[in-house]
Amino acid sequence: MPYRPPQYTPADNPTAAPPPIPHALGPTITDVARECGVSAATVSRILNGQHRGDPTTRGRVQATALRLGYVPHSGARSLVTRRTGALGILLPDLFGEFFSEFLRGIDDVSHEAGIHLLVTSTHADPEQLRAAAAAVRGRVDGYLIVAPGNRANAVITSLAEQLPVVVVGIDARACGAPSLMIDNAAGATAVAEHALARGYRHLAMITGPETNEDAVARRDAFRAVFARAEPDVTLTEFAGDFSQDSGWNAAHTMLAHPRRFDFVFACNDTMATIALSVLRDAGIRVPENMGVAGFDDLPMARFLTPPLTTVHVPIEELGRRAMRTLIDCVVRGAPSRSSVELIPTTLAIRGSTVPDTRRARS
Amino acid sequence: MPYRPPQYTPADNPTAAPPPIPHALGPTITDVARECGVSAATVSRILNGQHRGDPTTRGRVQATALRLGYVPHSGARSLVTRRTGALGILLPDLFGEFFSEFLRGIDDVSHEAGIHLLVTSTHADPEQLRAAAAAVRGRVDGYLIVAPGNRANAVITSLAEQLPVVVVGIDARACGAPSLMIDNAAGATAVAEHALARGYRHLAMITGPETNEDAVARRDAFRAVFARAEPDVTLTEFAGDFSQDSGWNAAHTMLAHPRRFDFVFACNDTMATIALSVLRDAGIRVPENMGVAGFDDLPMARFLTPPLTTVHVPIEELGRRAMRTLIDCVVRGAPSRSSVELIPTTLAIRGSTVPDTRRARS
DNA sequence: TGGTCCCGAGAAAACGTTTGCCCACCCCAG
DNA sequence: CTGGGGTGGGCAAACGTTTTCTCGGGACCA
Fold first, then answer.
1. Threshold 0.70, pTM exceeds
2. Which of residues 20-79 of A have CB within 7 Å of strand C?
3. What is the pLDDT of residue A151?
């Protein structure tokens, strides 16, 4: 990734004159010092709390800084402290409610730590991840990476050698970075067992992307329960990739299939929502003729028709924990120990698998 | 907002020793210069494209920079250029799909301009907005503000005096900043006219927050159509605030109302979704007994049961345009001319207002 | 051939902050 | 009265980059 300087000039007019007037800077530490009749060093120490000195001076300096609206220049500071006070959030793609929730958790933690967030959301593959990380290099003290798939190990490893890294979504122990993972197996298992307990026998599953470890884990756990189920139970898989379109295609493929299914498990709520919609259009009653379950428990899931049985994932909590872990790594300055934290999931049983819709607002 | 230095130490242990090992920095410009046998000045000029000089030297420097993986220290650079290459995105709150879509548009544009995004999402009122802006002061070249309500004018005005500002969601001409606004009036008007054309006569509206200009505009436009409708048409308003909970409360209040309604317009899709759910639980058929319409056209809207008639808002495009406007301001260095750009909306007619559900995937 | 101009590239200052080192002062004890 | 320890606070270097000023050399024209 060759270095490319920031381009404020619009792409359609690369020859435009460089902007002449940079923004006005506020008061500097020298201004505060002069105003108080002390040296810049003293101001710096007081404002950073390292100074146990004269309370009078301290009060005066703080008051002056406040009055002048002084905010230290973060660039100058990071130049000497070698810390930026910011963390890079590298997201594969910003789709749907999942990432709003996730970001909310992250923002919450970072906000109270006084840490800033550099967010990028445009990596779909390892190479773009590398580019995104390179772009914010030097501006951040660490990376929070939501894995774009399971092929990114090499990139993550090389990033983790330079800065603290926390990975969400894949097991990155081999990369030397702590990982946080959703307990997909428990969730998918619970769905499968619930389906069988409810008497459903011919199961369909709409899978997620092959490269997504969450998706694979959900699929495998679902398969595993099927493998030890009674022989009259069948399981058929239809390929999806978590997107709306793929859900639509998979649901229609399922309906065209010669086998009559009585249950469909979509590996995320987005696809489950679409499945519900397709089934309704086809005149199939849920849950009587067919049970439907999803995964994620998006805020909307309980308000669908019928309310969607799904695996609850504490998404915001996931973001929060990931952020705490990352901050912890940065504090220790250690090159991010390997570890895996499993985020528990629970099955939220609603109207798409049990007839009584009175439980609408479970 | 008193200055508070970044706190990497976890809040529960404020006395922890300061982190001893700052992250290792990569190669500096001096390293590249030494490696090539030229001066740092030359490297700087070449890498920034200001150098039309000797192609041999240029090629050598570029190759070396690439080989060493040199990335300039953004702090040092911003110290002298007085630009940071980053923009601050100040969001009121990260809820639902709306902001994922919005952020996607923003990220898209900034990414291709090589500009970084500092995202904050924790301001619910003007004072918090001021604090959020102060926190990133000096780290950004401009602000993209999604208004937390219509009381923020004073804060926005003072921000706009210092840095380029673009505002989304309120008319900030008085603040000296360009604004982008959704054409709420057109959308709400279209809904009202559609409802009346479909023969609905007793309309209910679930409003948004009083402090939100979008919400107010939608309400007023809907009222206006009612005002010039035939006398047998009634309109009753129920207070909401765009949240799921408020939608639930408003829908139930509506059902308890002595008047029998045959149409409900929720001022955003989140509340409309809840309304659909509540009506289903109450055994009211949509659209036969009651029509439902929302606003925003979230990606999920067309997959609800029945598919939701709603006002389509090009959310991603909104983010994209806002970002382009902001970048334009920063480029010109001008203190952000006042202007208002209106983002057009269109009515998406679906099954929640017209019986034929065959149009499911319109 | 001599003068002029241009172009490539280096030296050095400046940006705002932190921090190690040092000094001066004060207080207290001997 | 003097010496020592402790403390408040100043000086100056350093961080990595851009940019202005400068100079040397080569080309071109008369």
1. yes
2. 25, 28-30, 40-41, 43-45, 47-48, 50, 70, 72-73, 76-77, 79
3. 83
